[in-house]
Amino acid sequence: MRLEINDGEETIRVIGAVVIRTSQTGEIRLDFGPADGPPLVSFSMSGDQARDLSTSLRGVAEGGNEVVLLVGD
Asked: 69: exposed, middle or buried (C-beta count within 10 Å: 0-12, 13-18, 19+)?
């Protein structure tokens, strides 16, 4: 995996580990980063959002072209 930051400068960082856990607020948290260091980027989402993301990833991995998830706060 790799993280590409598209902010006008091409920055690519290798992702060596993804840690998935529940936060103290009950949200699902994904931390992406090197295997031997702190995360480069983190995502927090509700259980419903995590299930939607999982379903979308599975659909694309099984041959789907593209899925757009609209997310709110």
From this structure: exposed
Q: What is the pLDDT of residue 73?
A: 62
The overall average pLDDT reported for the chain is 89
Contact in structure between 12 and 2 (CB atoms under 8 Å): yes
Residue 27's CB is within 10 A of a number of other CB atoms, namely 15
Question: Radius of gyration over alpha carbons of the chain, in Å?
Answer: 14
6-56 pLDDT, tens digit per residue, is 777 778 888 899 999 998 889 999 999 989 999 989 999 999 999 999 999
